[in-house]
Amino acid sequence: MAYVVGFFAADGYITVTKRGGQFWSIQITDKELLYSIKRVTGSEHTIGERIGNENEKTLYRLQVGSNEMCADLRRLGFFEQKTKSMSVPNVPIEYFSDFTRGYFDGDGNVWSGLIHKKRKRPTFNLIVAFTSCSKDFLGCLHERLNTLCVTGGCLYKAKGGYLRLQYSAVDSLKLYDFMYNHRDFQKSGLFLERKKLVFEKYKKLKCARSSAG
What we know:
Elements: H1 2-11, E1 12-16, E2 22-28, H2 31-41, E3 48-50, E4 59-65, H3 67-75, H4 93-107, E5 108-115, E6 123-132, H5 135-148, E7 154-157, E8 163-167, H6 169-180, H7 183-188, H8 193-212
Antiparallel strand pairs: 1-2, 2-4, 3-4, 5-6, 6-8, 7-8
Helix pairs in contact: 1-4
């Protein structure tokens, strides 16, 4: 469930109807992952589908009506207007890698490629970044990751008013190990394969370049 909480922190929201009904929802383009989240949460609700046009991807939404679950989310610090006010919940250390992976899959990105292309020998790089409108959230995430797996990372304001917590190649690989290389990861099966593959492709190419050089 720590993964789901992390993903909700990135891409989830709570709504309250005029009659007092309370719902928590996640709306994303990754259909298979949303069905996995539905399975883990034990939900029997139907996943809705909004077909996109030629310039938009199809969106899938899981909406669960539960006053009790919404109350639990509020106790974790997630409210109706959580974008700028949320903070990192008190997730136990043994589950923090799952929480981090969940948030990364929702509001994180990973990139690999060549930088300094005009130099004689361009650098093959790997960058991981977490994004949020909440400085407190990213600051706390940065601090907790520093105590658990990486000592680097840079927090800065990006275009559009967002904040980014960014890591260089060495620390990005440490994050990879933290998020994916542990026993509980194999049990949950919750992750976005396309993001995990970026790390693995980088590691293979880096190894090949080192062997050739």
